[in-house]
Design a protein that fits this description.
4-stranded mixed β-sheet, 14 helices, UDP-n-acetylglucosamine1-carboxyvinyl-transferase, Chain, 2 domains, elongated, about 425 residues, alpha/beta
Length: about 425
């Protein structure tokens, strides 16, 4: 199992290109199964979750060719004949559950294992299943699998309100409805860029979807969809992560290229309060920390609010801000596994239910730390870059799921991050 050895402190100076979004790519990959011909996706990051989902698709009989040097993925569903997603693959990542909607949409039936993924938080799929039942799809749970089926070629549809709003459930229901439901309305639909991108891709394939970007989506059945060439979006969470990493360490002057700032929602407003120099120019973002940072409270919310996927990084940065700050997560109440690890480095944090209070500024000193999920992992890498001396970050396989070439990108901007095999 690999680990990172980080020598700090190291300001970030230079330029880092932003990779394609993992969270956006996975729904696009699932949607590719709905076409009558091959779909080519560009700007697909080389990440473990992408490789895993490629294998999930291959199980069905679809042909998947990943041209890694070009970050280009070609998915041909022509020979799809096995509408199942097995436990040994689905357990590795929750997004595999998108196969339920994609396979029902493609074949009218599906057998998909209940999902796995990061080790934090109850994230039940009940909402997905209730939505499918509201659409008219028969759902049956047997031995850890969801069996979904329809009689005939289509279902009546209807409407379903997502309480709470959910990206995953919105994606799954859209995938299931576009080729099967006469008319289906999703109320309180997620408005995240990932959902908008998926709907825009399906529209280009020939789907009939109204209300894209709003909280109410209306989907009418289209019998056939075509394969297309379509570009993934830049990763907004990677963008925010590198912005925070640069702001956290005095002396940093970091430029990020290939960004999509309009996808960042409310994040730039919170970031501006830090007091760092911060410029956005089309697809380029520059962050300079010459005078330290202010303590800034944030509260996560559904898009366009502050992303829950950036709260661990923000709390880590706040350990280096002058004064007390609070980070509240309204999406997930137990996403604070990084707190005891940051304390090992010398940080002062206190968790109360879904809120962490950070007392800064505290000097950080290198130590061995371990994480349990993707965003906690990257927050510990950031802390290691700000800490004095050597930090070991264990279980970095989490990072390989969501950050493409992380150590290479950081090292190109002046960090000292070495990957070694931990025996």
């Amino acid at each position: 199992m690999d680990k990172f050895i980080i020598e700090g402190p190291t300001p970030l100076k230079g330029t880092i290109p932003i990779s394609g979004s993992k969270n956006a790519a996975l729904p696009l990959m699932a949607a590719s199964l709905l076409g009558e011909s091959a779909t080519e996706l560009t700007l697909v990051p080389k990440l473990q979750d992408i490789y895993t989902f490629n294998n999930v698709l291959r199980v069905t009989g679809a042909r998947v060719d990943f041209h890694e040097k070009e970050n280009r993925l070609v998915i041909d569903p022509k020979n799809l004949s096995f509408p199942e997603a097995p436990y040994d693959l689905v357990r590795k990542m929750r997004a595999s559950f998108y196969m339920l909607g994609a396979l029902v949409g493609r074949t009218g039936r599906a057998k998909v294992s209940l999902p796995g993924g990061c080790a934090w938080g109850p994230r039940p799929v009940d909402l997905h299943l209730k939505g499918f039942e509201a659409m008219g799809i028969k759902i049956d749970l047997q031995q850890g699998y969801v069996n979904a089926s329809i009689e005939g070629e289509e279902v009546e549809g209807g409407e379903f309100t997502l309480e709470p709003s959910s990206v995953g459930a919105t994606v799954n229901l859209v995938l299931g409805a576009v080729k099967r439901a006469k008319k289906f309305v999703i109320k309180n639909a997620a408005k995240e860029p990932d959902v908008v991108l998926l709907c825009n891709m399906l529209k280009q394939m020939g789907a009939d979807i109204e209300g894209i970007g709003s909280s109410e989506l209306t989907i009418r059945r289209t019998e056939k969809l075509k394969g297309i060439t379509f570009s993934n979006d830049p990763d907004r969470i990677e963008t925010g992560t590198f912005m925070i990493a640069a702001a956290m360490i005095p002396g940093s002057d970091l430029t990020l290229t290939g960004c999509k700032p309009t996808d960042l929602g409310a994040f730039p407003k919170s970031f501006q309060k830090l007091g760092v120099e911060f410029d956005i120019d089309d697809t380029t973002i520059r962050v300079r920390n010459s005078n330290g940072i202010n303590a800034v409270n944030i509260k996560t919310d559904i898009y366009p609010g502050f992303p829950t996927d950036l709260q661990a990084q923000w709390a880590t940065m706040m350990t280096q801000a002058e004064g007390e700050s609070k980070v509240t997560d309204t999406i997930y109440f137990d996403r604070f596994s990084y707190v005891p690890e940051l304390k090992r480095l010398g940080a002062s944090l206190k968790v109360d239910k879904n809120k962490v209070t950070i007392s800064g500024k505290t000097p950080l000193t290198g130590a061995s730390v371990m994480s349990t999920d993707l965003r906690a992992s990257v927050s510990l890498v950031m802390a290691g870059m700000a800490a004095e001396g050597k930090t070991e970050v264990l279980r970095i396989y989490h990072l390989d799921r969501g950050y493409e070439n992380l150590e290479k990108k950081l090292n190109s901007a002046g960090a000292s991050v070495t990957r070694v095999t931990d025996n």
